Amino acid sequence: MRRPVFDLDVLRTFVTGVELNSFAKAADRLGRSTSAVSAQLKKLEEQIGTPVLAKSGRGLMLTAMGESLLSHARRLLELNDSIFQTLHENQTATTVRLGLQEDFGEHFLSDILRRFVTTYPMVNLEVRIARNAELLTLMDNGGLDLALAWDTGYISPYATRLGATQMHWIGSREMPARNMPGDSPLPLIMFDAPCVLRSAAIQALDEAKITWRIALTSPSVAGIWAAVAAGLGVTLRTRIGLPGHLAIIPGLPAVQTLGYVLHAATEQPTPAARLLATLIKESLQSP
């Protein structure tokens, strides 16, 4: 048996009339005549097979069936309107500005972009790969819609802590910098200060009374990996984006985990920005 299909225009008339407490006002708002509205209500009751409105003095009130229909009709109309809004936004050339640490960019950016463009092919993505301090400054100045950054204790109004990852001492497999005379300072490959990983490394070594020196600084993670691979020293980073030719070095002081936070520019991001945030969260939670 074929099930009847509700006419969304009829349901909209019904919901609007109930919300305005007047079907005459509903006719004006919807641009219809009162006779057309009456015909729609009659059609609705015939389709359901029972009255949805009953007389109450000079007005009308909902029957038990009418109350149930009102709840379902609202959900149907909300879903209908949401679908059309999403489809419209998918074809609108808007822009979402995303800021990432270089570690995260290498780790999952291509997968996120592929999944994002499937849903929002007309939305432009501006991706900024930068260090933590620069990302947070851009967020403060309204230069980004979303920023994935290390948790340094900075608090923004619309931030979500997504998790944490372990920091490790990393060196070359072929030329481990730890294998050197005991009196020599440990050579470190680091970002320039300020850097949360640099600070954590120095603090751990100082507490363990291990002497160290900054052997090389680089403005990029790629530069750090290259210097470590060449055996110029060790670095402190996470496993995120760790190249296969580098190795975790044992025997150095343990360090704590490092959290990561997704900062949003507003409490209610656009649907496209919300999807991007969801994809980032899912990617970080993937094994």
UniProtKB/TrEMBL annotation:
Residues 6-63 form the HTH lysR-type domain. Keywords: DNA-binding, Transcription, Transcription regulation. Transmembrane segments: none annotated. Belongs to the LysR transcriptional regulatory family. PANTHER family: HTH-TYPE TRANSCRIPTIONAL REGULATOR LRHA-RELATED, TRANSCRIPTIONAL REGULATOR. This is LysR substrate-binding domain-containing protein. It comes from Pseudomonas kulmbachensis.
